[in-house]
DNA sequence: CGTATCAAACAGGTTTCGTGTTTGAAATGT
DNA sequence: ACATTTCAAACACGAAACCTGTTTGATACG
């Protein structure tokens, strides 16, 4: 996993100053310039940065969501704990809709060997679940957003509107009692709302860090959630505020 | 690709006599019994055969469709030629629905770098198309059938019913003038019909071998097709019969 | 026109994967 | 109950794939 670390190093360096030269990056990572060029080519392909002659500039604007490929390796343990905790809350035979995002992908993986009906809202989760023998996999229609592979659009909303689930597992980009559940992407926000409307019980999952964050698109007030599963280092005041809004907060 | 060939050898041997012992297969492939056991484990996982102590028995019944993993490596060149021929028939800007199956997967791959709106009817094709920069990818809902990953069911039909395409690329398990277009799977047949109904032009793709075959589920008469693209070793009489039904036959 | 940057090709090193062997455990048959 | 067969796990070996650095000739920029 040496190359992955270097990629992250490059991304961070480029984001820090907006742009970096190939020579700088080669020095920083103590590799050859050729390796840096190959890395930049890969990262540019993923849309993480823009290549120009002699270097690269960042495409990650402040306040924007970092891309899936990066978030996937962040806080793995916390996500794992959250995922198993959520899996324990779901009973065999239930029909579950699982939102897009890395935390929800973890939940999907934790449900692989269960006997359930599952509708994932991203192709990442769908791919993780195909072939699961006891699982009934139901895919919504829609347009997969590049990278994230989250399904959005009228087809997705129509698919959700046609179904009723026992539980919705919703990810979020920001969540707190005052601003409610928020997302970076407007289309995503609409889908989250639709998924919540189609489910009897709503479980929100989020790393502790997101409790102090608020994203662009408002999805729903905290009171619309039944359970929030988050990390064990979630601040007490936020947890209390959510509890006061009638939400069951589970820190794992 | 040595192991792939051995797997095929094993499958063929097992299907030939219904079942084979581990010792027999080890001798036949001139490998160790341990390797055979590992192979059988893999193949059993794919649902290609059933393991029992000392050997394995075939699960491929006569007249049933061989699984995706096997067909994928069959007649690669013919499929490639068909795929490029179909791609040439499609103009930039069109909206295209692409059926499931290995031949259609080839067509999807051939369209990767085009400027089109594409709705694939299988997750295999969907995965091949995500990340294509100029492509607008539209996914139908539905339940992915294991292995094939073909999307079927009411959600799929609803997605298709809501849209109108310029071209439908349809695969088939059997096709000839007298029995029309046929498929192995009933649910698949319904989807093919829905896709054809939603498209202005219908292109059927099929290896030449399938022109002399007829599968269980009737989809549509040959006259419902506008173009058939097939291999260059397609028999003249079948091609003529299709032409007589008003279909343009393209042999590549 | 000179310099910097780049992409392709080659070579070395490392890692991963597949295979074979061994060993002890489990299952089957007598 | 015992002997035999079958199996799975562990280890070791070799081949293939991958990553990286260097070289070289081409291309872009000032």
Automatic annotation (TrEMBL), chains A, B:
PROSITE patterns associated with the record: HTH_DEOR_1, HTH_DEOR_2
Record key words, sorted: DNA-binding, Repressor, Transcription, Transcription regulation
Every HTH deoR-type domain range: 3-58
Signal sequence residues: none
InterPro entries, A to Z: Carb_Metab_HTH_regulators, DeoR-like_C, DeoR_HTH, NagB/RpiA_transferase-like, Tscrpt_reg_HTH_DeoR_CS, WH-like_DNA-bd_sf, WH_DNA-bd_sf
PANTHER family found in the cross-reference section: GLYCEROL-3-PHOSPHATE REGULON REPRESSOR, HTH-TYPE TRANSCRIPTIONAL REGULATOR SRLR-RELATED
Record's function text: Repressor of the lactose catabolism operon. Galactose-6-phosphate is the inducer.
Name under which the protein is recorded: Lactose phosphotransferase system repressor
Record organism: Micromonospora tarensis
């Amino acid at each position: 996993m040496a190359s992955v670390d270097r990629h992250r190093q490059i991304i961070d360096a480029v984001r820090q100053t907006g742009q970096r030269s190939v020579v700088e990056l080669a020095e920083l990572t103590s590799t050859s310039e050729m390796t840096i060029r190959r890395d930049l080519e890969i990262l540019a392909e993923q849309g993480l940065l823009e290549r120009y002659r002699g270097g690269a500039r960042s495409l990650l604007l402040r306040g924007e969501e970092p891309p899936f490929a990066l978030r996937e390796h962040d806080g793995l343990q916390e996500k794992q704990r959250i995922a198993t905790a959520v899996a324990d809350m779901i009973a065999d035979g239930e029909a579950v809709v699982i939102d897009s995002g890395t935390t929800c992908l973890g939940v999907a993986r934790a449900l692989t060997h269960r006997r359930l009906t599952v509708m994932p809202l991203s192709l990442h989760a769908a791919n993780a679940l195909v072939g699961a023998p006891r699982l009934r996999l139901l895919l919504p229609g829609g347009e997969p957003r590049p990278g994230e592979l989250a399904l959005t659009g009228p087809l997705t909303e129509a698919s959700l509107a046609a179904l009723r689930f026992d539980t919705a597992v919703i990810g979020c980009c920001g969540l707190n009692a005052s601003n409610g559940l928020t997302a970076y992407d407007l289309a995503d926000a609409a889908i989250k709302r639709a998924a919540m409307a189609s489910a009897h019980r709503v479980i929100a999952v989020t790393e502790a860090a997101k409790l102090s964050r608020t994203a662009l698109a408002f999805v729903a007030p905290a009171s619309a959630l039944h359970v929030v599963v988050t990390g064990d280092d979630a601040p007490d005041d936020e947890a209390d505020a959510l509890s006061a809004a009638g939400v069951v907060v589970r820190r794992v």
